[in-house]
Design a protein that fits this description.
Length: about 190
């Protein structure tokens, strides 16, 4: 029995896209980076905490496998999570404009007796964005709830000059890596 410990509608949509059947678990894990914690370690730790919290809720279910994931945008060593408000989104998009950043997604699978994870790093180049374009984009509401204040699957697709890596990973769940991981747990789509 597969569970997705995530409130992200994108992660549900992505898992459904590859034909996996699963139930959703509501987990709420604080996303706080420790002083000096490298971005990759932070993303992996948070994903593991989400999967672990989910597993606690279903540990009694026979053959339960729980997925947890985290996605963050990294530029110049700074981690951009979900913007707190429009001013935060504006600051993020101004910094990302015309630059290449990393999107780090980590996914953990946890069952009784087995824990495995994959961390995927993509490089995304955003075209230079002028102030009017950024303002219009924020007004669509799309930046909210998304790491780095943009959604590759939405209007922001028009801003993406180059992507090296995995589209699904930027969206929140690296599908190739996740399905490979799940095959180690006997789960196939
Ligand atoms: C960069 C980028 C991120 N995102 C989203 C994916 C994630 O939902 C979100 C990053 O926040 P996360 O903290 O990884 O996930 P979440 O809070 O949405 O869901 P949960 O913790 O319950 O699993 O940003 C996009 O949808 N498109 C993008 O292009």
């Amino acid at each position: 029995m597969l569970y997705l410990a995530s409130q992200s509608p994108r992660r549900r949509q992505l898992l459904e896209q590859v034909g996996l059947r699963f139930s959703v678990l509501d987990v709420d894990v604080p996303e706080l980076r420790r002083a000096g914690e490298p971005p990759e370690d932070y993303v992996s730790r948070v994903a593991r905490e989400k999967a672990g919290a989910g597993f606690l809720a279903v540990a009694a279910v026979e053959r339960a496998v729980v997925l947890g994931a985290d996605t963050e945008v990294v530029l110049d060593g700074d981690i951009f999570g979900k913007p707190a408000d429009a001013a935060d989104a504006l600051a993020m998009l101004r910094r990302l404009s015309g630059r290449t950043h990393q999107v780090i997604s980590s996914v953990w699978a946890v069952s009784a007796g087995r824990e495995e994870h994959v961390t995927q790093i993509s490089e995304v180049t955003l075209a230079p964005l002028d102030e009017a374009t950024i303002a219009r984009y924020i007004a669509t509401g799309e930046p909210f709830g998304k790491a780095g204040a943009y959604g590759i699957q939405g209007h922001a697709a028009a801003f993406i000059a180059h992507l090296s890596g995995s589209h699904s990973s930027v969206m929140g769940l690296p599908l190739h890596e996740t399905t490979r991981l799940l095959s180690h747990f006997g789960i196939v789509g």
